[in-house]
UniProtKB/TrEMBL annotation:
An annotated Gene Ontology molecular function: proline dipeptidase activity
Protein name: Xaa-Pro dipeptidase
Domain Peptidase M24, chain residue ranges per copy: 145-347
Signal peptide: none
Species: Aquibacillus albus
Family: Belongs to the peptidase M24B family.
Enzyme Commission numbers on file: 3.4.13.9
PANTHER family membership: AMINOPEPTIDASE, DIPEPTIDASE YKVY-RELATED
Needed cofactors: Mn(2+)
Pfam family, one: Peptidase_M24
Gene3D superfamilies: Creatinase/methionine aminopeptidase superfamily, Creatinase/prolidase N-terminal domain
Alphabetized UniProt keyword annotations: Dipeptidase, Hydrolase, Manganese, Metal-binding, Protease
Domain of life: Bacteria
Length: 363
C-alpha cells in the first residue's frame, strides 16, 4: 500500500479533503489491480478519516485482493447501484466529504449526475494534474516493466520488417506482428498497430488496410505492447527495394532531428526545448510545415500521459521521466517518415529503452 500512503501524504499538501479515482490507469497505479471494467464503476475513495476504499464489481473482488489491495472493499452485483452503496458506506462512517476530487478528463456526465444526486452538498474539483504529477516520475519497478515492454516493441518492429514482401497488404503484415507477439505472451497492444505503405505514410495516424507493398514504397511501423500494465511505443520507417533522393533526404532530416533532440536532453532542461531543437532542424532543411505534431508524449501505464513534449512546455526534465521522441515529416504524394524512441530520463541523460536500429534500411 506504499502508493496509497504516498497519496495520503499528498492530500494535505494539495489541500485536498478527499478523492474518488476512477480511471483505469490511476486505479491500477494506486491499487495494483489492473482491469478494464467496461461500463461498470470501479474507483478508489481516499481521505484522512478512514481506510481507503476500493469500489468494484463483485466478480473482481478476489482478483483485487490477490493483487495486494489491503484497504476496504465495497463490491456490488450488477443489479445494485454502486453509487447508492457508496453513499451508505460513507454516511454510516460519517465520512461524507464537503469536497471530493475527481478526474475531469475521465468522469462522465452520467457519473457526475450520480455524485450530485447522492451527495448534493458535496462540491467537486479536478485532481487530474495532481494524479499526473504523482505518476510522472517512474520508480525502479516501473523502469524495469517499461524496459521489458520496449524490448517487445523492438521485437514487433523486427517481425514486421522481416514480413515485408511485394504484394503483401498492410493488414497481413500487421496480423503477423500481433500473432507473433501473442506467442510471446502479449495479450494487448498499447494502441492500434500501424503498418502504412506508400502515400499513406504521409498520414501521421493513418489506418492500415488492403494497400499492398510495392517497390519504391516507404513502409512505416508504429506499435507498442502492454506488459504487466505498462506501455511501449516505437516507430520505424524503411524503404522497399528502392528510394528516391527526396525520400532519402526526408529520412536523414528526421533522423538528424531526433538525434539532436536526444543529445539536447539534460536534467533541468525545459521539456519544450527538445521540441524546439528538433523543429528548428527540420525547418532549416525546408520541411517545417510538414512536421505537424508535437515531439512526443509521456508514457507509462497510459501510452499517452504526462508530460506532453510540446514546444511550450516549460517544466524541467527530471530523473525518472519516461517519454517518446518522435519527429516526423509527412508530404502528400511523396510519403512520410517518423522515427520514434521511448526513453527514460536519468541523472546521466537519456537512456533509450527502444533500441531497434534506425539507420536507413532499404530492403
Amino acid at each position: 500500500m506504499t502508493r496509497v500512503n504516498k497519496l495520503l501524504d499528498r492530500l494535505q499538501e494539495w489541500n485536498q479533503e478527499s478523492m474518488f479515482i476512477t480511471s483505469k490507469a490511476n486505479v491500477y497505479y494506486i491499487s495494483n489491480h489492473y482491469t478494464d471494467p467496461h461500463e461498470r464503476l470501479i474507483g478508489i475513495f481516499i481521505d484522512k478519516l478512514g481506510e481507503p476504499l476500493l469500489i468494484l464489481p463483485a466478480m473482481e473482488k478476489d482478483t483485487a485482493i490477490a493483487s495486494g489491495w489491503q484497504g476496504d472493499i465495497l463490491s456490488y452485483a450488477d443489479h445494485e447501484n454502486p453509487w447508492e452503496l457508496f453513499y451508505h458506506y460513507l454516511n454510516k462512517s460519517k465520512r461524507i466529504p464537503n469536497t471530493i476530487g475527481i478526474e475531469h478528463d475521465h468522469f462522465t456526465i452520467e457519473r457526475f449526475e450520480q455524485i450530485k444526486a447522492f451527495f448534493p452538498e458535496t462540491t467537486t474539483n479536478d485532481v487530474k494534474e495532481h494524479l499526473a504529477n504523482l505518476r510522472v516520475i517512474k520508480d525502479e519497478k516501473e523502469y524495469h516493466l517499461l524496459k521489458q515492454a520496449a524490448n517487445l516493441a523492438d521485437l514487433g518492429v523486427e517481425i514486421g520488417i522481416k514480413a515485408i514482401e511485394e504484394g503483401k497488404t498492410e493488414l497481413e503484415i500487421l496480423a503477423t506482428i500481433e500473432y507473433e507477439l501473442k506467442k510471446q505472451g502479449i495479450r494487448e497492444m498499447s494502441f492500434a498497430t500501424m503498418v502504412l505503405t506508400g502515400n499513406k505514410t504521409a498520414i501521421p495516424h493513418g489506418t492500415p488496410g488492403l494497400d499492398t507493398i510495392k517497390p519504391g514504397d516507404l513502409v512505416l511501423f508504429d506499435l507498442g505492447v502492454v506488459f504487466e500494465g505498462y506501455c511501449s511505443d516505437i516507430t520505424r520507417t524503411v524503404a522497399y527495394k528502392q528510394i528516391n533522393d527526396q525520400q532519402k533526404d526526408i529520412y536523414q532530416t528526421v533522423l538528424s532531428a531526433q538525434k539532436a533532440a536526444i543529445s539536447h536532453a539534460k536534467l533541468q532542461q525545459p521539456i519544450g526545448s527538445l521540441d524546439q531543437v528538433a523543429r528548428k532542424h527540420i525547418t532549416d532543411k525546408g520541411y517545417g510545415e510538414y512536421f505537424t505534431h508535437r515531439l512526443g508524449h509521456g508514457i507509462g501505464i497510459d501510452v499517452h500521459e504526462f508530460p506532453s513534449m510540446t514546444s511550450t512546455n516549460s517544466l524541467p526534465l527530471l530523473p525518472g521521466m519516461s517519454f517518446t521522441i518522435e519527429p516526423g515529416i509527412y508530404i502528400p504524394e511523396i510519403g512520410g517518415v517518423r522515427i520514434e524512441d521511448q526513453v527514460l530520463m536519468t541523472d546521466g541523460g537519456i537512456e533509450l529503452l527502444t533500441k531497434y536500429p534506425k539507420e536507413l534500411q532499404i530492403l
